Amino acid sequence: MTARVEVYGIRHHGPGSARAVRAALAEFKPDAVLIEGPPEADGLVELAADPGMVPPVALLAYTPGESGKEDGRKAAFWPFAEFSPEWQAIRHALDTGAEVRFCDLPAAHQFADAGEEEPEGEEDVTEDLRLDPLGTLAEAAGYDDAERWWDDVVEHRDGGPAPFPAIAEAMAELRERLPLDALPAAYRLREERREAYMRRTLRRALRDGFERIAVVCGAWHVPAVRAAAPGAPGARVPAAQDDKTLRGLPKAKVAATWVPWTHGRLAGRSGYGAGVRSPGWYHHLFTAPDRPVERWLTEAARVLRGDDLHVSSAHVIEAVRLAEALAVLRGRPLAGLDEVTEATRAVLCEGADLPVRMIEERMVVGERLGEVPAATPMVPLQRDVQAEQRRLRLKPAALGKEIELDLRKATDLDRSRLLHRLRLLGVPWGVPAGEGRSKGTFKETWTLMWRPELDVELIEAGAWGTTVRAAATARAAALAAGATALPELTALAERCLLADLGDALPAVMRALADRAAVDADAAHLMAALPALVRALRYGDVRGTATGPLREVVDGLAVRVCVGLPTAVTGLDDDAARALLERVDDVHGALSLLGDEAHLERWRATLAALIDRPDLHGLLDGRLTRLLLDAGRLPDVADRMARAVSVGAAPSRAAAWVEGFLSGGGLLLIHDEALLRLVDAWIAGLPPDSFTDVLPLLRRTFGAYGSAERRTIGERARHLGAASPAAPGGDGDDDIDPGRAAPAAATALRILGWEVPA
Amino acid sequence: MTDDAVLRPHAEQQYAGELARLAEHDDRPRPPGWRLSPWAVTTYLLGGDLPDGTPVSPKYVGPRRLMEVAVATLATDRALLLIGVPGTAKTWVSEHLAAAVSGDSTLLVQGTAGTAEEAVRYGWNYARLLAEGPSAEALVESPLMRAMRTGAVARIEELTRMPSDVQDTLITILSEKTLPVPELNTEVQARKGFTVIATANDRDRGVNELSSALRRRFNTVVLPLPDSVDDEVQIVARRVAQLGTALELPEAPAGLAEIRRVVTVFRELRGGLSSDGRTKLKSPSGTLSTAEAISVVTSGLALAAHFGDGVLRAPDVAAGIVGAVVQDPVSDRVVWQEYLETVVRERPEWRDFYRACREVS
């Protein structure tokens, strides 16, 4: 008996195709099934039968990079959902003990091939874009939308004769008619090679003695594959010709594995174009045993009820009626997604758009994340991540979820460390909410969302080490060695502390100290300091050893004080403004550090600066103010008068006032001493000078909000009359320690500090 | 009765020819009580060509799916609720639906704060009631009751303006499809084909929200403002032409550019964004619906015909536009001035319009 070959043309991710393929295979009982997919995965296919394998999953083929080289990495996915015909074919073959082989052009060739664009796993898109064979057929059938036509003719039909002969005929007809020459040459060449490889795989299977061979491939390729099938209609293609096409193809090193996939990635809207617009709906069509419309709308009603929208069974009944009436009106065999959505909108949601969008997100796309069994080939790092996920009870999910970590708890602290380490490895599973630093130091909020690409990132990061900790350490050390700027290094140090990478810290610190020593620019040093000081403070809560960090901070502080005097000479307005920010940052950081020696040195540096005549007005004013706040300057009133007197250039005077009063109007409102000082100075100006100074003042005060200005004015009015006992004046000193003690104790307990009994 | 003398003929009178032709070619099954099949009704609303080449003018310009949902709703004997801001053709659609489905768009209850229950159920001829006692002859039917008896489509305008207790009268009618008359110990059972089309706008405040019991007896279709400038220009131009014929205004040539300008002004102010997307604008308090654009252009045409040179020009529409935009004399005037100075003035080809608006504001 001669071998029989059946070629089933399908649409990828089509539930109707899947159903038809399943039925056809059950009848044909093949002993070998060839499936469009990367041959590299032939060895992995048994895993599909593992109970731990839950679609949607994807075959991932990638080029294993060397020691984390970022460029040149290539990866391609072949996604399978429960309702994918390929998946059903694989499962059927495995269940019946038939041989499964993938017959697409090996990824090794696709990757190595010039690499003009990322090779995609599916060819539907490209075809739809470039020549759209289904669109042509749909048009012939009087449809304006190819998807709807295919849905009506293939996907929504249940039972009846297998559609495959008809599809094959239609495709053969189409391939003859369409102007293939109009396609780009590169694309055509690739298609030729792919089809040649499919035929070659088929011939090899025939040679291997299989007698009943089923080929499952995209509908478009059916005529091409048949050209190598004995007894099939259509022209032959000799083996020699295919060998010629495939000779001398470049090859790349490729590894393959299974990765979990999501419905969201299957949907066309997320950029991966190969998919279907409504995976959730297709999954429903495929899995629902009967009455798909009724079941769908009932489920939609449940989703709405879950969000406290009142939807009764009567609503569902009417929605089903409307959907069916619409389908009849539009001449469709079964209510499709369009009809069901209209019915949901008009009846269940009473015309409102928002709940409809919710249904779309949760059901039509449906965030479903697949799972792969433990036996799947993985790099050690992946295994370690999985072990950590299990240990810390953090399950990857496709839908973004916000979690709050209390760093005083051991588990939460470990979770935070894991997330920080993964981020350091370039696997942003969690994104810290509110990038701006919050006030609390023991709470962290993360948004967790597992995307399929993260698996690829993980595999790539596997080059750094076998455990998350080791890999992150290695990566941090490498980053430190490659860093060129100080702020980069300090930010890295901060991340190391957050991720509790004590082993990496010495390397980073050494790099940091080396950089700081040779960096002549005080501005750089100043930019680096605040992050380090913050990191030191973090150490308190996280229990990280911060010894090396402390040394670096000490060294930096000294260097900043030494370097500042040279940094302030010859600045223009913009540079002065930039430096002012740095000075403020350093000042804040040193105050936060609370080291008296550093603060003393800093103040002495500043005090030495303000007497220099070449100092920019902005800085002069600001430094005067900083020293005034520190109580180091007895003669501020004189300095103020001097700075804005006739001798000073107006622009410098304006800058001085601006620098002195910077920090917003609120300070003037609440710092009565400051207000008195300013008030006295203005009141003491001779009339002529006042007119000169007025524009300068206006420039500074004009930047304040109108409410602030008004309050300042009111305060200033009462200033003259106010006795020392005016409200606000005595509030600070009037603390009753006995009554404040319980409140202070509670505050301390909230902060997690020991309460002295 | 001479239709010519009527200021505004009903839909079924004005389009009697189209309806007759549609019925002639309609070979699809018709739901009981319907004059046309659902397909023919959809064609009547959205326009198209009949097999013999007779064109059917589009009555509604907008998403096809909305009309399909509306027709499918009526075909499943559900009540239809049309919602939208004022001027989105709710009444227009309901009238044409009723005309196409049952050939009669006059079974109409106008909802107002003073609508009484009698207007929805039935009233009495008190002279006869006193003279003869309760009898079928003394009963005065409401349009709704007549629709039930004849199996036709009843229309309720501005449903949310009715007092809540009157609204709730509808619940029994819509769910049981029967209207009891306890005084005569009888009832009216709706014949097949009876259904209700109600309209309500979701912009006005001080309306009586529908109870959820009533709400769930309706399928809801939200009519949106026109999607694109071109759609809106098309709607305005078509309606203006129809109104112009009815009012026997002389034909005004080259009005399309002016109509486009009116529509652009309305859309920009409504959306709070200039059409090039560069300038943010304040929106005035009025709705600035398509219907208002239509009336602005119509009155501009009248001005041009009777006082101008017969061509629709900027000064003819300026007064109308200002009147439509400035509803609140204080805040809207600021909005309008701002728009005039920041957007209109910057457009060189709008100079005539700018001058005209300056003159009237």
Automatic annotation (TrEMBL), chain A:
This is Uncharacterized protein. Pfam families: DUF5682. It comes from the Bacteria.
Automatic annotation (TrEMBL), chain B:
It comes from the Bacteria. SUPFAM superfamilies: P-loop containing nucleoside triphosphate hydrolases (SSF52540). InterPro entries: ATPase_dyneun-rel_AAA (IPR011704), CbbQ/NirQ/NorQ/GpvN (IPR050764), P-loop_NTPase (IPR027417). Residues 80-218 form the ATPase dynein-related AAA domain. This is AAA family ATPase. It comes from Actinomadura parmotrematis.
